[in-house]
Amino acid sequence: MKIVSLLPSATEIVFALGLGDQLEGVTYECDFPPEATSKPVVSETALPQDRLLSPAEIDAMVGGFMGRQESIYRLDRDLIQRIQPDLILAQDLCRVCAVPSGQVQDALKELGCSSQVISLDPHTLEDVWKGIAEVGRATGTEALATELVEGFRHRIERVRTKAVRLPTIRTLALEWSDPPWIGGHWVPEMVTIAGGTNLLSEPAQPSRRAGWREIADATPEVIVVMPCGFYLDEAQEQAERLYAQPDFAGTSAARNGDVFAVDASSYFSRPGPRLVDGLEILAWAVHPDSFPRPSADAITRVRG
Predict the structure, then answer these.
(1) Quick one: which of 283, 23, 25 has its CA closest to 162?
(2) Mean per-residue pLDDT for 197-217?
(3) Buried b vs exposed e over 99-110: b needs ≥16 C-beta within 10 Å?
(4) Is pLDDT above 60 for 57?
(5) Domain residues of the chain, as ranges?
(6) CB burial readout 208-236, b (16+ within 10 A) else e
(7) CATH class, 168-302 region
(8) Between vectors from CA 123 to CA 177 and to CA 208, what angle results, nearest 5°?
(9) pTM here?
(10) In this structure, which topology does domain 3-56+68-146 adopt according to CATH?
(11) Model pLDDT for residues 156-197, shown as the tens digit of each residue
(12) By three-state DSSP, how is residue 240 classified?
Protein backbone atom coordinates (compact mmCIF):
# COMPACT_ATOMS: atom_id res chain seq x y z
CA MET A 1 0.00 0.00 0.00
CA LYS A 2 1.24 3.48 -0.90
CA ILE A 3 0.30 6.11 1.69
CA VAL A 4 0.51 9.91 1.56
CA SER A 5 0.14 11.92 4.76
CA LEU A 6 -0.93 15.55 4.58
CA LEU A 7 -0.55 16.35 8.26
CA PRO A 8 2.20 15.68 10.81
CA SER A 9 -0.06 13.86 13.28
CA ALA A 10 -1.10 11.38 10.58
CA THR A 11 2.56 10.80 9.74
CA GLU A 12 3.20 9.95 13.39
CA ILE A 13 0.22 7.58 13.37
CA VAL A 14 1.50 5.83 10.24
CA PHE A 15 4.89 5.23 11.82
CA ALA A 16 3.33 4.14 15.13
CA LEU A 17 1.44 1.47 13.18
CA GLY A 18 4.67 0.19 11.64
CA LEU A 19 3.85 1.50 8.17
CA GLY A 20 6.75 3.87 7.65
CA ASP A 21 8.08 1.90 4.70
CA GLN A 22 4.72 2.37 2.93
CA LEU A 23 4.69 6.14 3.41
CA GLU A 24 5.42 7.73 0.03
CA GLY A 25 4.72 11.41 0.72
CA VAL A 26 4.56 13.83 3.66
CA THR A 27 4.29 17.56 4.41
CA TYR A 28 7.13 20.00 4.95
CA GLU A 29 6.28 19.96 8.69
CA CYS A 30 6.54 16.19 9.15
CA ASP A 31 9.63 15.82 11.31
CA PHE A 32 8.76 12.97 13.69
CA PRO A 33 9.92 10.34 13.84
CA PRO A 34 13.20 11.52 12.27
CA GLU A 35 12.79 9.03 9.41
CA ALA A 36 9.85 11.11 8.19
CA THR A 37 12.21 13.85 7.05
CA SER A 38 13.62 11.57 4.35
CA LYS A 39 10.23 11.16 2.65
CA PRO A 40 9.20 13.13 -0.47
CA VAL A 41 7.38 16.37 0.41
CA VAL A 42 3.99 16.75 -1.30
CA SER A 43 2.66 19.75 0.65
CA GLU A 44 4.36 23.11 1.25
CA THR A 45 3.23 26.31 2.96
CA ALA A 46 2.51 29.49 1.05
CA LEU A 47 3.86 31.56 3.96
CA PRO A 48 7.37 33.03 3.52
CA GLN A 49 10.11 30.65 4.64
CA ASP A 50 13.13 32.91 4.06
CA ARG A 51 12.86 34.58 7.47
CA LEU A 52 11.44 33.98 10.93
CA LEU A 53 7.98 35.53 11.18
CA SER A 54 6.64 36.93 14.44
CA PRO A 55 3.34 35.59 15.83
CA ALA A 56 1.65 38.87 14.86
CA GLU A 57 2.98 38.64 11.29
CA ILE A 58 1.82 35.05 10.96
CA ASP A 59 -1.62 35.96 12.31
CA ALA A 60 -1.94 38.84 9.82
CA MET A 61 -0.80 36.75 6.85
CA VAL A 62 -3.09 33.86 7.74
CA GLY A 63 -5.97 36.30 8.11
CA GLY A 64 -5.20 37.62 4.63
CA PHE A 65 -5.29 34.14 3.10
CA MET A 66 -8.56 33.37 4.88
CA GLY A 67 -10.08 36.68 3.79
CA ARG A 68 -9.20 35.96 0.16
CA GLN A 69 -10.42 32.38 0.56
CA GLU A 70 -7.02 31.13 -0.54
CA SER A 71 -5.28 28.02 0.76
CA ILE A 72 -2.19 28.46 2.91
CA TYR A 73 -0.84 25.20 1.50
CA ARG A 74 0.30 24.09 -1.94
CA LEU A 75 0.02 20.51 -3.12
CA ASP A 76 2.66 19.08 -5.43
CA ARG A 77 0.13 17.60 -7.82
CA ASP A 78 2.75 16.22 -10.19
CA LEU A 79 4.36 14.26 -7.37
CA ILE A 80 1.03 12.94 -6.15
CA GLN A 81 0.20 11.82 -9.67
CA ARG A 82 3.53 9.99 -9.91
CA ILE A 83 3.03 8.32 -6.54
CA GLN A 84 -0.56 7.23 -7.31
CA PRO A 85 -1.25 6.67 -3.59
CA ASP A 86 -3.73 4.07 -2.42
CA LEU A 87 -4.49 6.05 0.74
CA ILE A 88 -4.26 9.76 1.55
CA LEU A 89 -4.61 10.98 5.13
CA ALA A 90 -6.01 14.52 5.29
CA GLN A 91 -8.08 16.73 7.61
CA ASP A 92 -10.87 19.31 7.74
CA LEU A 93 -10.40 20.42 11.34
CA CYS A 94 -8.33 23.52 10.63
CA ARG A 95 -7.62 25.30 7.33
CA VAL A 96 -4.62 26.95 9.00
CA CYS A 97 -3.03 23.68 10.12
CA ALA A 98 -2.93 21.55 6.97
CA VAL A 99 -4.42 21.03 3.51
CA PRO A 100 -8.23 20.64 3.77
CA SER A 101 -9.55 17.34 2.44
CA GLY A 102 -11.79 19.19 -0.03
CA GLN A 103 -8.72 20.66 -1.71
CA VAL A 104 -7.26 17.16 -1.85
CA GLN A 105 -10.41 15.71 -3.42
CA ASP A 106 -10.44 18.45 -6.06
CA ALA A 107 -6.81 17.76 -6.92
CA LEU A 108 -7.38 14.01 -7.18
CA LYS A 109 -10.35 14.56 -9.48
CA GLU A 110 -8.28 16.76 -11.78
CA LEU A 111 -5.42 14.25 -11.76
CA GLY A 112 -7.64 11.24 -12.34
CA CYS A 113 -6.42 9.53 -9.16
CA SER A 114 -8.74 7.15 -7.33
CA SER A 115 -7.01 7.26 -3.94
CA GLN A 116 -8.98 6.59 -0.79
CA VAL A 117 -9.02 9.72 1.37
CA ILE A 118 -9.47 9.51 5.14
CA SER A 119 -10.14 12.83 6.85
CA LEU A 120 -8.96 12.91 10.46
CA ASP A 121 -10.91 15.63 12.29
CA PRO A 122 -10.57 15.11 16.05
CA HIS A 123 -12.02 17.47 18.63
CA THR A 124 -11.34 15.32 21.70
CA LEU A 125 -8.80 12.75 22.85
CA GLU A 126 -11.32 10.02 22.14
CA ASP A 127 -11.65 11.34 18.58
CA VAL A 128 -7.88 11.04 18.20
CA TRP A 129 -7.98 7.40 19.30
CA LYS A 130 -10.88 6.71 16.91
CA GLY A 131 -8.79 8.20 14.11
CA ILE A 132 -5.92 5.85 14.90
CA ALA A 133 -8.35 2.93 14.83
CA GLU A 134 -9.72 4.09 11.47
CA VAL A 135 -6.25 4.23 9.96
CA GLY A 136 -5.60 0.79 11.42
CA ARG A 137 -8.69 -0.64 9.72
CA ALA A 138 -7.77 0.94 6.39
CA THR A 139 -4.22 -0.42 6.48
CA GLY A 140 -4.72 -3.89 7.93
CA THR A 141 -3.13 -2.98 11.26
CA GLU A 142 -6.28 -2.90 13.36
CA ALA A 143 -4.88 -5.14 16.12
CA LEU A 144 -1.83 -2.94 16.62
CA ALA A 145 -4.00 0.20 16.56
CA THR A 146 -6.19 -1.28 19.29
CA GLU A 147 -3.13 -2.15 21.36
CA LEU A 148 -1.74 1.38 20.99
CA VAL A 149 -5.00 3.03 21.97
CA GLU A 150 -5.42 0.79 25.01
CA GLY A 151 -1.94 1.82 26.13
CA PHE A 152 -2.78 5.51 25.71
CA ARG A 153 -5.99 5.14 27.70
CA HIS A 154 -4.13 3.38 30.50
CA ARG A 155 -1.64 6.25 30.77
CA ILE A 156 -4.46 8.80 30.75
CA GLU A 157 -6.27 7.02 33.57
CA ARG A 158 -3.05 6.87 35.58
CA VAL A 159 -2.81 10.67 35.41
CA ARG A 160 -6.52 11.16 36.05
CA THR A 161 -6.55 8.87 39.09
CA LYS A 162 -3.71 10.77 40.75
CA ALA A 163 -4.89 14.27 39.77
CA VAL A 164 -8.45 13.80 41.00
CA ARG A 165 -7.12 13.55 44.58
CA LEU A 166 -5.30 16.89 44.31
CA PRO A 167 -6.57 20.49 44.48
CA THR A 168 -7.69 21.86 41.11
CA ILE A 169 -5.54 24.72 39.83
CA ARG A 170 -6.85 27.55 37.64
CA THR A 171 -4.95 26.91 34.42
CA LEU A 172 -4.74 28.88 31.18
CA ALA A 173 -3.49 27.20 28.01
CA LEU A 174 -2.23 29.98 25.73
CA GLU A 175 -2.16 28.67 22.16
CA TRP A 176 -1.01 31.91 20.51
CA SER A 177 0.64 34.97 21.98
CA ASP A 178 0.03 37.87 19.58
CA PRO A 179 -2.90 38.21 19.54
CA PRO A 180 -3.71 35.87 22.43
CA TRP A 181 -5.68 32.73 21.61
CA ILE A 182 -6.77 30.11 24.14
CA GLY A 183 -6.31 26.43 23.33
CA GLY A 184 -9.43 24.52 22.34
CA HIS A 185 -10.44 21.10 20.98
CA TRP A 186 -8.58 18.46 23.04
CA VAL A 187 -6.54 20.93 25.15
CA PRO A 188 -9.26 21.85 27.72
CA GLU A 189 -9.83 18.14 28.29
CA MET A 190 -6.11 17.63 28.86
CA VAL A 191 -6.04 20.49 31.38
CA THR A 192 -8.95 18.97 33.31
CA ILE A 193 -7.46 15.47 33.38
CA ALA A 194 -4.15 16.95 34.57
CA GLY A 195 -5.87 18.49 37.58
CA GLY A 196 -6.53 21.99 36.33
CA THR A 197 -9.61 24.14 36.02
CA ASN A 198 -9.46 25.09 32.36
CA LEU A 199 -9.97 28.81 31.73
CA LEU A 200 -11.57 30.71 28.84
CA SER A 201 -12.17 27.83 26.42
CA GLU A 202 -14.52 24.89 26.16
CA PRO A 203 -13.79 21.19 25.57
CA ALA A 204 -14.25 19.98 21.99
CA GLN A 205 -14.72 23.56 20.76
CA PRO A 206 -12.35 25.59 18.57
CA SER A 207 -9.61 27.71 20.06
CA ARG A 208 -10.78 31.25 20.76
CA ARG A 209 -9.27 34.69 20.73
CA ALA A 210 -9.12 36.53 24.04
CA GLY A 211 -8.02 39.91 25.37
CA TRP A 212 -5.32 40.50 27.95
CA ARG A 213 -7.81 42.09 30.34
CA GLU A 214 -10.05 39.03 29.98
CA ILE A 215 -7.07 36.81 30.74
CA ALA A 216 -6.19 38.84 33.83
CA ASP A 217 -9.79 38.74 35.04
CA ALA A 218 -9.77 34.93 34.76
CA THR A 219 -7.11 34.91 37.53
CA PRO A 220 -4.96 32.03 36.23
CA GLU A 221 -2.71 30.36 38.79
CA VAL A 222 -0.78 28.51 36.07
CA ILE A 223 -0.22 29.66 32.49
CA VAL A 224 1.12 27.22 29.91
CA VAL A 225 2.42 28.93 26.77
CA MET A 226 1.91 26.46 23.92
CA PRO A 227 2.07 28.44 20.64
CA CYS A 228 0.67 26.24 17.89
CA GLY A 229 3.38 24.74 15.72
CA PHE A 230 6.31 26.10 17.76
CA TYR A 231 8.99 24.17 19.62
CA LEU A 232 10.29 24.89 23.12
CA ASP A 233 12.90 27.54 22.32
CA GLU A 234 10.45 29.68 20.37
CA ALA A 235 7.72 29.13 22.97
CA GLN A 236 10.07 30.29 25.71
CA GLU A 237 11.01 33.42 23.76
CA GLN A 238 7.35 34.25 23.21
CA ALA A 239 6.57 33.65 26.89
CA GLU A 240 9.35 36.03 27.95
CA ARG A 241 7.93 38.79 25.75
CA LEU A 242 4.51 38.44 27.37
CA TYR A 243 5.79 40.04 30.57
CA ALA A 244 5.70 43.38 28.74
CA GLN A 245 1.90 43.08 28.90
CA PRO A 246 0.85 44.54 32.29
CA ASP A 247 -2.27 42.39 32.47
CA PHE A 248 -0.18 39.27 31.91
CA ALA A 249 2.59 40.29 34.28
CA GLY A 250 0.02 41.04 36.97
CA THR A 251 -1.46 37.53 37.07
CA SER A 252 -0.64 35.37 40.05
CA ALA A 253 0.84 32.83 37.63
CA ALA A 254 3.38 35.38 36.41
CA ARG A 255 4.06 36.85 39.85
CA ASN A 256 4.58 33.43 41.45
CA GLY A 257 6.76 31.94 38.71
CA ASP A 258 4.11 29.53 37.48
CA VAL A 259 4.33 30.37 33.78
CA PHE A 260 5.57 27.47 31.66
CA ALA A 261 6.65 27.22 28.03
CA VAL A 262 6.29 23.87 26.27
CA ASP A 263 7.24 22.15 23.04
CA ALA A 264 3.79 22.70 21.60
CA SER A 265 4.49 21.32 18.15
CA SER A 266 5.49 17.94 19.51
CA TYR A 267 3.08 17.47 22.40
CA PHE A 268 0.00 19.69 22.05
CA SER A 269 -0.61 20.98 18.51
CA ARG A 270 -0.61 17.61 16.74
CA PRO A 271 -3.57 15.32 17.49
CA GLY A 272 -1.60 12.10 17.46
CA PRO A 273 0.13 9.57 19.72
CA ARG A 274 2.27 12.13 21.57
CA LEU A 275 -0.72 13.94 23.08
CA VAL A 276 -0.42 11.48 25.96
CA ASP A 277 3.12 12.71 26.55
CA GLY A 278 1.65 16.22 26.48
CA LEU A 279 -0.85 15.27 29.16
CA GLU A 280 1.92 14.00 31.42
CA ILE A 281 3.90 17.20 30.80
CA LEU A 282 0.84 19.29 31.63
CA ALA A 283 0.20 17.33 34.82
CA TRP A 284 3.66 18.28 36.07
CA ALA A 285 3.07 21.96 35.23
CA VAL A 286 -0.18 21.95 37.21
CA HIS A 287 1.08 19.78 40.10
CA PRO A 288 4.91 19.78 40.01
CA ASP A 289 5.20 18.16 43.43
CA SER A 290 2.98 15.21 42.51
CA PHE A 291 4.03 14.19 38.99
CA PRO A 292 7.42 13.24 37.50
CA ARG A 293 9.39 16.10 35.99
CA PRO A 294 9.42 15.82 32.16
CA SER A 295 12.55 16.11 30.07
CA ALA A 296 14.11 19.56 29.83
CA ASP A 297 13.48 19.75 26.09
CA ALA A 298 9.71 19.43 26.62
CA ILE A 299 8.91 22.14 29.17
CA THR A 300 10.58 24.94 31.08
CA ARG A 301 9.47 27.24 33.84
CA VAL A 302 9.68 30.86 32.67
CA ARG A 303 11.28 33.26 35.16
CA GLY A 304 10.72 30.76 37.93
Answers:
(1) 283
(2) 97
(3) bbbebbeebbee
(4) yes
(5) 3-56+68-146, 168-302
(6) eebebeebbebebbbbbbbbbbbbbebbb
(7) alpha beta
(8) 30
(9) 0.91
(10) Rossmann fold (3.40.50)
(11) 999 999 999 999 999 999 999 999 999 999 999 999 999 999
(12) helix
